[in-house]
Amino acid sequence: MINKVSRHIVQNEPLIFEQSSPGKRGYQLPELDVPAVDAEQALGAGHVRSEIEDFPEVSEFEALRHFTRLSTWNYAIDLGMYPLGSCTMKYNPRVNELVARTEGLAWAHPYQAEELSQGAMEVIAALENALAEITGMDAVTLQPAAGAHGEFTGILMIRALLESRGNARKKILVPDSAHGTNPATAMMVGYTVENIKSTDRGVVDLEALERAVNEDVAGLMITNPNTVGVFEENIRKICGILHDKGALVYMDGANMNALVGVARPGDFGIDVMHLNLHKTFSTPHGGGGPGAGAVAAAKVLTPYLPGPRLKRAGDLWQWNYDLPQSIGRVRAFYGNYGVLIRALAYIMAHGGNGLRQATLDALLNANYIRTLLEPYYEMAYKAPSMHECVFSDDRQAKKGVRTGDIAKRLIDYGFHPYTVSFPLIVRGAMMIEPTETEGKRELDAFVDAMIAIAKEVEEDPELVLKAPHLTRTPRVDEVTAARKPIVRWQPSTRASQAAD
Ligand SMILES: *Cc1c(COP(=O)(O)O)cnc(C)c1O
């Protein structure tokens, strides 16, 4: 039974190559009123393009409609909620776009002289200061291009500090609830990874941690709140355990949407962390758009931050390249600058109280969803939720329906799926993060859809197992799509597929 279903305009748009008819043009030029010249003679043969085989020939309107129709096949944040847990899919306020397009900033060239770049440098300085205050850390770099890149930067800094003390050590500890980028980062910096168990409350097991920490351990990479959406309540003790053995603590700050304005990692003992500016501070990242993985460091690690660093010389900003202990550049120029502008605009528009309110609203929204869905779905860990809640498909699995099936069915109800099967420590995970962006009406519509699906699983599991039913393309064979992708248009392939 389907209720409250939104149906899309489904236009079965063929490939543009299939719409081509020879001689069709998307433009019209006046008759030549000058003598024609031979292009090859005028330009030289090397500069004249040869015929492109199968080049589509369509009218202007056909081209326009083709791409506009294709754009409607995507789900978009302007269409509805993206409840993707761990991703913090917010995109507001839109005025940030206007700010990012400010001419003097958008057109600034990275090779422009320092005295002509003072405004752009001021933006960097202001954002670094704001982020240092928000995190309670001593200094911030905006160079890294995304979260994982920030992790890489931070662990390189830890390695450099330990090397300066005479021993880089061998291992990085990573809780079993960590994002996959954490162990990958540790490996890339040349460490081996040791997993730390979580308790049945979903937090780091202190005894397991104490047993694991020794003189071989360079540090711990911890996410707080962690990926099951639970605050690591023993975080001070955890930092103490590492510090007592001369090891450091890296915090994956992808979940800062739950802490900004409420708690500061610098105050609970973190040595270095990254922020996903494209998650917590407004820039949307659907479709793999640009990110920014600002790294914030406590005093002991600031000499190792990537260079150059900003410094004040009289009335002017300057780039300081004289940083003997720096790990060096991690990216060309000064980071993904457009994302930085949006983050600063977001922070300044909210102010301290506004940021705190956004955090509290994000927590409220996640707990609203949790409360309404707990009668229908199994809550993986009973500890209080922060900005996201993680259910498991335990109850639905008894009917043969798994998290991926429920996610597909959610598409029929007009929502982007939640995060499926992550974190790995929850079997059949369904990870939901609404963010503070969503209002009650949208949250209620989402909850209604999830409850309707839970009832469908009881009454007609086949309906859910075969979802989606209302999309242009029905359920695809994901394994074949991944193993044998068809990425090149071939008339023969299309013809044979159509015949199938
Ligand atoms: C998103 C995320 C990352 C990686 O960040 P990117 O910007 O995608 O590289 C790392 N850890 C957690 C917990 C995340 O949610």
Verbal overview:
- This protein has 500 residues and is α/β, with parallel strands linked by helices.
- It has 2 domains: 94-349, 3-Layer(aba) Sandwich (Aspartate Aminotransferase, domain 2); 354-483, Aspartate Aminotransferase, domain 1.
- It contains 17 helices and 13 strands.
- It has helices at 39-43, 60-72, 95-100, 103-106, 118-135, 147-164, 181-188, 206-212, 235-244, 277-280, 337-373, 394-397, 403-412, 440-459, 461-465, 478-483, 491-499; strands at 139-141, 171-175, 192-196, 217-223, 248-252, 272-274, 295-297, 309-313, 316-320, 378-379, 389-392, 419-420, 429-432.
- The site of pyridoxal-5'-phosphate has 13 residues, from helix 6.
- Count of DSSP strands: 13
The first-level CATH class name of the largest domain = Alpha Beta
Low-confidence stretches: 493-500
For the report, how would you describe the main beta sheet? Answer: 7 strands, mixed
CATH level 3 topology of the largest domain? Aspartate Aminotransferase, domain 2
SSE topology:
Elements: H1 39-43, H2 60-72, H3 95-100, H4 103-106, H5 118-135, E1 139-141, H6 147-164, E2 171-175, H7 181-188, E3 192-196, H8 206-212, E4 217-223, H9 235-244, E5 248-252, E6 272-274, H10 277-280, E7 295-297, E8 309-313, E9 316-320, H11 337-373, E10 378-379, E11 389-392, H12 394-397, H13 403-412, E12 419-420, E13 429-432, H14 440-459, H15 461-465, H16 478-483, H17 491-499
Parallel strand pairs: 2-3, 2-4, 4-5, 5-6
Antiparallel strand pairs: 1-7, 6-7, 8-9, 10-11, 11-13, 12-13
The structure holds pyridoxal-5'-phosphate.
The site of pyridoxal-5'-phosphate (PLP) has 13 residues, from α6.
